[in-house]
């Protein structure tokens, strides 16, 4: 299951996670964000015990989006041990995200 994160719980869920975390920065009005959402949901099932898939709405959590310099959405940041280790801007095929996640495991 994809976990919703926000300005309040970001540190707890993402930074302090003991598994790699994918954060999908998105917004309700963003067409490409809606295109990639089902892929993120599929990845959350595929990597259920190995990595955490999360979504952060940039409209309701602007502090975190600004902290990580999110200017375009969708932007996907991959975290490991509390640090950004990879980035993907724009909607991409599932296979690209799988490669990025597998590199962290």
What does this structure look like?
The longest helix has 16 residues, at 31-46. With 105 residues, the protein is α/β, with parallel strands linked by helices. The chain is globular. It has helices at 10-15, 31-46, 62-67, 94-104; strands at residues 3-5, 21-26, 52-57, 75-80, 83-89. 37% of the residues lie in helices and 27% in strands. It has one domain: Glutaredoxin, CATH 3.40.30.10. It has a 5-stranded mixed sheet. The protein contains 4 helices and 5 strands; from the N terminus they run E-H-E-H-E-H-E-E-H.
**Low-confidence segments:** none
Architecture, according to CATH?
3-Layer(aba) Sandwich
Which word captures the global form? globular
Please identify which CATH superfamily we are dealing with. Answer: Glutaredoxin
Mean pLDDT: 97
Q: Span from first to last CA?
A: 19 Å
Q: Give a count of the beta strands, DSSP E runs of length 2 or more.
A: 5
Strand arrangement across the biggest beta sheet:
1-3-2-4-5
Provide the CATH top-level class. Alpha Beta
Number of helical elements: 4
Largest sheet at a glance?
A: 5 strands, mixed
Structural class: alpha/beta
Q: Domain count, please report it.
A: 1
Instruction: Quote the beta fraction.
Output: 25-35%
Element-by-element helix/strand order: EHEHEHEEH
Indicate the radius of gyration in whole angstroms. Answer: 12 Å
CATH topology assignment: Glutaredoxin
- What is the percent of helical residues? 25-40%
């Amino acid at each position: 299951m994809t976990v919703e994160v926000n300005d309040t719980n970001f540190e707890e869920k993402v930074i302090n996670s003991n598994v790699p975390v994918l954060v999908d920065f998105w917004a309700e009005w963003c067409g490409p964000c809606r295109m990639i959402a089902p892929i993120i949901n599929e990845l959350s099932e595929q990597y259920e015990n190995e990595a955490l898939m999360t979504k952060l709405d940039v409209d309701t959590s602007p502090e975190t989006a600004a902290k990580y310099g999110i200017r375009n959405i969708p932007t996907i940041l991959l975290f490991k041990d509390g640090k950004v280790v990879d980035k993907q801007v724009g909607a991409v095929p599932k296979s690209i995200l799988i490669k990025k996640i597998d590199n962290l495991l």
